[in-house]
Amino acid sequence: MLSKSAAMISWVNMKIKTTHLLFTLYSLLFTLFTIYSYAFLDIGLTLTSFEPYLNFQKKMQWFGYFNRPKSTFIFIILAFLLFTIYYLLFNAFKKRETSIRDILILTVIICGVLLFSYPSFSHDIFNYIFNAKMVLIYQADPHRHAAMEFSDSMLGFMRNIHTPAPYFYGWTIISLVPFLLCFNRIFPAIISFKLFSVFFFFLTFLFLKKIYPILKIKNDKLRLTLFLLNPLILIEAIGVGHNDLSMMALVLASFYFLLKYKEEKSSKGRSSSGRKFLLFSVFCFLFSVSIKYTTIILLPLFFIWYFRPKLDLGLWGAVLLFLLPFIRPLEQLHSWYLIWPLTWIFLSKKIKAVYFFIFLSFFALLRYAPYIWYGNWDPPVVNLRLLVYFLVPFVSLPLFLKRKN
To answer: Three-state secondary structure along the chain?
Structure first.
């Protein structure tokens, strides 16, 4: 009996050590990605005059701009390793070898690391910064004026300086706060805007967590783990600093308050608290739409679900959010657009649909490889990116459909 107990304790200790090793490896991989991200730092941009950093910057720029085959190889290895550890951590949680509390701690550490990464695959964060700067420094409306109208040093490493802000006023209002915290310095501005991305990341987590018990969705903690640790979401939202989670957090908040309104109405009839939830829901929905317009596509589904609650709102919402970018030219089909359906799919009743979108997120990250190899977005990069994004995932779709929950 004692020998069996000792063997059990030894087995448990081994599993704990294995999980801790996975935590360490995952954190280390994101640290390596943060270092690697500086290979994409613009030639005309210097973040600080600190001498050791300048030497590091010079080496990383040389590597990124003049050694593209090796850079592409390293990126592919990092992507494979990130998703491999992600899968192993998912299995560890599934077998109850770790807890949601531990996953949260790991996520906080990873977010802390990614705050210092360079926004490697996109220049959007610089546009966010400059649009806020136009309001607070130049007293100009970024929705009516283009960045190129101003003589500013930031224009040397920005993109899309010839058009006004593509987002609506909701995002402009939000962006004023992180800009005020950065004292008009570029590196603090990057950190400040990313901190807001971290805030919306955990706000998304919070509303998913609140919605699950109301909808009685199974595998809630497993889904939260898959969201918190997803490499594409972490890299695009925190590492690169895209604003998509601000939009998604608010539309999830809108749905949560709609759920609360429906609960109140069914239990108490019309009440002041019920009307309050409805007003919150409408406000959050309109604020979400005012950020990036995209979530307006969910409005018809909200109405259908309200009267037919058996509708799998998570699945059909994710399908619509996935298809929406295809109304644009295919060369503008960016990887971070997958954050929209990838976030919403966690509300689906079908766990295999969740697994498929997570599977697709690996290829969404991997499709940066042709850009890294060629160093531009010109042909044949567009076709190669589409091939990476669609060939394996959608050939595999029938296998997901046949899988049992």
So the answer is: CHHHHHHHHHHHHHHHHHHHHHHHHHHHHHHHHHHHHHHHCCCCCCCCCCHHHHHHHHHHHHHHHHCHHHHHHHHHHHHHHHHHHHHHHHHHHHCCCCCHHHHHHHHHHHHHHHCCCCCCCCCHHHHHHHHHHHHHCCCCCCCCCCHHHCCCHHHHHCCCCCCCCCCCHHHHHHHHHHHHCCCCCHHHHHHHHHHHHHHHHHHHHHHHHHHHHHHCCCCHHHHHHHHHHCHHHHHHHHHCCCCHHHHHHHHHHHHHHHHHHHHHHHHHCCCHHHHHHHHHHHHHHHHHHHHHCHHHHHHHHHHHHHHCCCCCHHHHHHHHHHHHHHHCCHHHCCHHHHHHHHHHHHHCCCHHHHHHHHHHHHHHHHCCHHHHHHCCCCCCHHHHHHHHHHHHHHHCHHHHHHCCC
